User: What shape does this take?
Amino acid sequence: MTAETSVPCFNCVQNAKDELALREDVWRVPGWRLALAFNSSLPGWLVAVPGRHVEALEELNDAETEALGKLLRDASKALKSVTGCVKTYVILLAEAPGFAHLHFHIVPRMVDLPEERTGTAIFAYLKEEPLTDDRRDELARQIRYALSNY
Assistant: This one.
């Protein structure tokens, strides 16, 4: 449960599981887990989640902070390799009920992204039919392979 709501913390529930599907456990570094967004129609939309419950950036310890920079860079490189994106958007909001647990969206910004979906309008991809679990698992394999080379 989060401080301001009785909704269970999605990321704490995921982090507590003994086993996760590949799409929920794409890559790990000390203190962090990469997952593919469960509700995105945009291939490659990643989420970086700390292994412990924190709700604000300033709550990260030094080790988590140092690992985060490299993780964001490497995830962006992997997305460029796998999706062909021109860059990534990295977004921190963490305010929706059940999602106050700090997490970073690492979103591939495709070359053909419609103008009406640039910037934070990219979140429209979370309101469409999401990718199938099989497609997310395939992307997870490709992203994991790319990350293993950095």
